Amino acid sequence: MKDSVVPSPASTTSRFAALAKLSCPVSAAVSRGAGREQAICQAVVDLLNEESYESVTMDAVAAKAKASKATIYRRWSNKDDLVVDALRRVLVDHIDEIPDTGNLRDDLVSRLDCQVGNPQVFRTYKAAMKSLMHAAMRDPALAELIRQSFEDVQVRALQILLDRAHSRGELRFPVGAALAWELLHAHFSNRTTVEAKPVDAVYIRHVVDDLLMPVLLHAGSTASRDAVTR
Hints:
Blueprint: H1 9-50, H2 58-65, H3 69-75, H4 79-93, H5 104-117, H6 119-138, H7 140-168, H8 177-194, H9 201-229
């Protein structure tokens, strides 16, 4: 029977040092991997704004992000998956707080001001709208994925604002956020793509005061009448 060997303090210390050296590259690799994926997603958004949907190829993204195509394909199996995930990631990383000014009109203006004032968010929404317009004509399933990647976040936030307004008595009846999103999306899409004009503070206040608020107030009364007559 062999005698057991008790490791000396010095040998134990050296083993811990060796383990630490092994663990450091793993942590750094994870950090580098996350940073590389973020750079790839940002490259997709930039290309969508600078070019067309068709121009967003794996080669173009790799060149823009200074990454290899192998790195991209290890994470995303095709271009559609890459575009949808890129839009979602960039938006999630830049979601602003939901304002609570005390009234619906100012809540809406504040939220839209913050989003328009954040270049990263605004560029991502423009990229998403361009992608959506392309996909809607060719691939309804892809269009739905793109729509969900940036619409769900907005609708949830708008619903919070509308529910607050209803609780305060500004809206006499509940109003679904899908209506508010439909109006905002239609006007902002037209403004940025068809008219090719900026969505600035003046335009935001025009949309909120002259279009969105009247529609929301009317929609609440219409919903109540429908509920009573059913």
